[in-house]
Amino acid sequence: MITLRNYQGKKVGIVGLAKSGIATVASLIASECDVYVWDDSEEKRQAFWHSSASVKTHMNDPQTWPWNKFHALVLSPGVPLTHPEPHYTVKMARDAGVRVVGDIELFCEAQHNTQKIAITGTNGKSTTTSLIAHILQSVGRKVAAGGNLGTPVLALPPLASDGCYVLELSSYQLDLVQAAHFNISLLLNMTPDHIDRHGSMERYVTAKSHIFDRQNRYDFALIGIDDDYSRSVYAELKQKSKAQLIAISRLNPLKQGVFVDKEGILHDKIDPANPAAIKLYDIINLTGRHNWQNAAFAYAACKAYGLTTRDIEKGLRSYPGLRHRLQIVATIHGVRFINDSKATNADATSHALTPFSHVYWIAGGKPKEGGIESLAPYFESINHAFLIGEAERAFAKTLEGRVPYTICGSLANAFDAAAKKAFVDRRQNAVVLLSPACASFDQWKNFEERGDAFCKMVEDLLDEVVLGRK
User: Is there a contact between 24 and 74 (Cβ–Cβ < 8 Å)?
Assistant: First the structure.
């Protein structure tokens, strides 16, 4: 746990009692702060009320808080800062002259002497974060990874100045930073997302770009240049940033930077006078061009951190893969079962459909804006779609006459139907793919719970096959 000694004895408000909010409460209590907490959800307030931390905090209506005595208001990422309108506590804090921050800001204040690699983007953040951490750990570096991925930052262990934090950061978190500084910052890509939260694509891009704020000439800014939004950020930073810029591409060769060619070979031309190359196409846990982009970013980040090409390649080859992202759960009767529950939008699902030619696709959930029409170029690789959740009717309308589909309602029904059809069809290199292109909140708490349920179904099926019942 990270403690915040500069906050000792000060009054701090926390709004939002999800995972990062709870970690912030624990950190502030350990730092002997006077902590006020709130969540608009009655369920979360009740859960917190029954926790041991509740006796050391004040949990009452923020209207009654002593705002004029507060040192800060810590907003959890899920609480609106600006859109569709600021949360009422944000307005109250500003009226009282109280700064509004997130847990990332508190973390950076406490760990200002420790190296930080920060990763953002619309897709690929989690894989890139875990991949960088794995490579650094594989050569014996002291590393802790978290943020938007896994462990909240204030629940991470304290590291000395020779350690490194590898942080996945969302646009919500970056919207709340004010003085945070990252030594190596990565912007992977940007496609329209979270517009309801930021108000416009321009504001979304601005929030993501905060990852490069306050960088100096000793820092590194790594930017993907395969989409228009990211290219515009690269061009802007080239004009005004003091950081060392490195361009990354998975689509086009670069004279300077890091790119992956069509054959899946990574080319390091950060210093064109000393090029290097790594074969990515035969690394099983980095299948697909989207993972080649993740590998290119991880390579560039670790190179900037000081690792050799040889050590980075070893780390890439030993990477075990990320749970819920193109996770190969098992192969049964020649059919691979793949958990890609983290694909919560169509763009993420496009990366899952690209590597395969015979897909039995489980899709649906709480729909995102735009639906799945953008996936039309990949429809020919889908043998059959099994649709679930709130999106199933809309998805069926898009697939009508183009892809055979079955409306299944639940994940359990879809899994049974997909497995049976894949076994009967006996297609070579067939995959049963859970890649929903939707959020999970209509039927599950989060994508992890959805993915875990899929994995359990695969494991149960494998047990039945081993025991001879199927």
Answer: yes
pLDDT at 52 over 80: no
**Cis? peptide before 84, omega within 30° of 0:** yes
The phi, psi pair for 70, rounded to 5°, reads: -80, 145
Provide the residue type at 283 as one letter.
I
Shared domain check, 372 and 271 = no
For residues 383, 384, 389, 392, the Cα torsion angle rounded to the nearest 10 degrees is 100
Place 413 in a pLDDT band, splitting at 50, 70 and 90: very high
Cα–Cα distance between 126 and 121 in angstroms, integer? 10
Which helix (H) or strand (E) segment holds residue 361: the answer is strand 358-364
Q: Give the strand pairing for 11-15 and 34-38.
A: parallel
Joined tokens for residue 6? 């500069």
β-strand pairing of 265-269 with 276-279? antiparallel
**Closest alpha carbon to 57 in 76, 78, 77, 38:** 38
pLDDT at 468 over 80: no
Q: What is the pLDDT of residues 352-372, one digit of tens each?
A: 898 888 999 999 999 888 899
Residue 222: inside a domain, yes or no? yes
| Cα dihedral 252/256/257/259 (nearest 10) | 30
Question: Helix, strand or coil for residue 258?
Answer: strand
Q: Please check whether residues 364 and 436 belong to one and the same domain.
A: yes
Average pLDDT rounded to a whole number, residues 3-24:
93
Question: For the residues of 267-305, what is the DSSP string, one character each?
Answer: EEESSTTS-EEEE-TT-GGG-SHHHHHHHHHHHHHHHHH
Give domain status of residue 322, yes or no. Answer: no
CATH code, domain with 449? 3.90.190.20
Could you give the angle at the alpha carbon of 432 between the alpha carbons of 295 and 373, nearest 5°?
A: 75
pLDDT at 297 over 60: yes
Query: What long-range pairs does 422-428 form, CB within 8 A, spacing at least 24?
Result: 422/335, 422/360, 422/383, 423/333, 423/335, 425/358, 425/383, 426/334, 427/358, 427/383, 428/334, 428/358
- pLDDT the model gives residue 470: 53
Count of the separate structural domains present in the chain: 3
